[in-house]
């Protein structure tokens, strides 16, 4: 009998530490304007900020009870490496700031 092999969620995926991290960043966090948040609040986002954004998006955008679906979603979200995503966001913010400085020098 052929056995099905399952790959754990902790394998690298598209340059990210795992599939869950890549997917959450791609589908939820990449559309969030963290640079604007920095301008408005004067501070960089934290890992807790990222978790709050994801959990609010996943669990507040529904009607009725989620039951088993919620259990699976919470298990998936627990696999996300929010520290890695935060590093990526901070690098993007810093690159945007450097670009703006360079653009201002050339004006």
* Biggest sheet record: none
**Principal-axis shape:** elongated
Beta fraction of the residues? under 5%
- Share of helical residues: 55-70%
Contiguous runs where pLDDT drops below 50 for at least 5 residues = none
| Overall pLDDT level | 81
The number of domains is 1
Number of H- or I-type helical stretches: 5
Q: What's the total count of β strands? A: 0
Helix/strand/pairing category = mainly alpha
Query: Termini separation (Å)?
Result: 70 Å
Give me the Rg, rounded.
18 Å
Order of helices and strands: HHHHH
Care to give the gist of this entry?
The chain has 107 residues and is mainly alpha-helical.
Characterise the protein shown here.
The chain has 107 residues and is mostly helical. It has one domain (19-105). The protein is built from five helices and no strands. The chain has helices spanning 19-27, 34-41, 47-60, 68-78, 82-105. α3 crosses α5. The longest helix has 24 residues, at 82-105. The radius of gyration is 18 Å and the shape is elongated. The chain starts with 18 loop residues before the first helix and ends with a helix.
Itemize the secondary structure elements and their pairings.
Elements lengths: L18 H9 L6 H8 L5 H14 L7 H11 L3 H24 L2
Helix pairs in contact: 3-5
């Amino acid at each position: 009998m052929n056995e099905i092999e399952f790959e754990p969620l902790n394998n690298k995926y598209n340059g990210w530490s795992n599939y869950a991290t890549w997917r959450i960043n791609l589908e939820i966090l990449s559309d969030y304007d963290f640079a604007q948040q920095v301008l408005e609040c004067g501070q960089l986002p934290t890992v807790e900020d990222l978790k709050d954004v994801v959990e609010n998006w996943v669990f507040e955008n529904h009607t009725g009870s989620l039951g088993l679906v919620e259990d699976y979603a919470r298990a998936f979200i627990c696999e996300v490496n929010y520290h890695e995503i935060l590093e990526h966001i901070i690098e993007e913010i810093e690159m945007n700031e450097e670009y703006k400085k360079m653009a201002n020098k050339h004006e």
